[in-house]
Amino acid sequence: MIVISEERLVESPYIEWVAHGFTAADGCEMRPAEYNWHLIFTRHEGVRRILVVGALEEARPLSYVAGAETLWIRFKVGTFLPHLPAPATVNQELLLS
Asked: How many angstroms from the chain centroid is the CA of residue 60?
């Protein structure tokens, strides 16, 4: 189960919303297809990870473990990073660290 303790819209031309939460138990949920891409920061048992999650063309399962703290940043459609081509991120999860 994913528990989102804080979620808010952002007054930014690039960021749609930011959410902070944690996982209360191991689980698996379906992620819906969507146009936006995300930058996700997680911390679990002292290990930190940064993921770029691209736009999804179809729904996919998302597995997670209990005890992880997560910060999600959802970017607005059309936002991009110059060194990270959007086509390379579609339907992908890229580990940055």
From this structure: 13
Taking a C-beta distance cutoff of 8 angstroms, is the pair 81, 46 a contact?
no
Tens-level pLDDT at each residue, the chain (97 residues): 677 788 888 899 999 999 999 998 999 999 899 999 999 999 999 999 999 999 999 999 988 899 999 999 999 999 988 888 888 899 999 999 7
Distances in Å between the alpha carbon of 83 and those of 3, 23, 55, 89? 33, 31, 17, 12
For residue 22, the cross-strand partners are 3, 69
Give the chain's domains with CATH numbers: 2-79 (2.60.120)
How buried is residue 2: exposed, middle or buried, by Cβ count under 10 Å (0-12/13-18/19+)?
middle
CA 83 vs. chain centroid, Å, equals 19
> Which residue type is seen at 69?
E
